[in-house]
Amino acid sequence: MIPPLARRFVAGETTAGALEHARQCNEEGIGVILNQLGEHYDRREPAKEAAATYESLVEEIDLAGLRACLSIKPSQLGLDVSEQLFESNLDSVVTHAAARDVFVWIDMEDHETTDATLDAFERLARQTDGGVGLCVQANLRRTPDDLERLADLPGKIRLVKGAYDPPPSIALQDKAEINQAYRDQLRYLFEHFQGEVAVGSHDPEMIDLAASLHDEYGTPYEVQMLMGVRDDAQRSLATDCEVWQYAPYGGEWLAYFYRRVAERKENALFALRAILS
Known about the structure:
This protein has helices at about 5, 15-25, 45-65, 85-100, 115-125, 145-150, 175-190, 205-215, 230-235, 255-265, 265-275, and strands at about 30-35, 70, 105, 130-135, 155-160, 195-200, 220-225, 245-250. By secondary structure, it is an alpha/beta fold. It has a single domain (about 5-275), classed as TIM Barrel (Alpha-Beta Barrel). Strands 1-2-3-4-5-6-7-8 form an eight-stranded parallel beta barrel, surrounded by seven helices.
């Protein structure tokens, strides 16, 4: 059972709990991006099981009529085993989802998986006429070139600052430089991307910039935030623009919870207050 402290960041251990969380968010005008926790599977069987679980989740979303979609990590579908296994499992999930009009996001993991992830997105974006989305990390030095490659594709691009701590040779390290890269890349997306832009940030400055760029270029966009982070802001923003919440669930919640607490001072303070009380 997930303790109340961790429950702020995780939408339950079961599919039923995740769907109920999605229903509650929908009532507040917020869409939900569901991710079953789990990554870096190094055997075929767990990767196949993960794909089957996502296909079942698609059916549950469709049956419940929820404003919800999926977000999947490539290593969860077997990329650590082989690129062929990853593509086969991802194709199966995306085909299943497309038949039920459920959107699929492909998460971006560490820099060693970037090329395989980009290749899979490009192929599926064309095949589904935009039924998939891709996460792109602003801190990687290669990202401006990647965005040029993606500009003419349908689908959605989620721009995040990046959290995998890649080496300085391939990624920016300074916070101010990363913020400037995010601004520049966000502007590029609004000006050139043929699909929809997703602002994957809790930073009010970046969210305000996106609204300004939307007014300037007319490019459709949405704001995406993590479950448990700036919840009040999510509800407030949902009255003016499209907001989606990234909500993980499942039995592997403990590692995710500790990562969320460690990465933001506000989260750590929340956890400390809860423990002391």
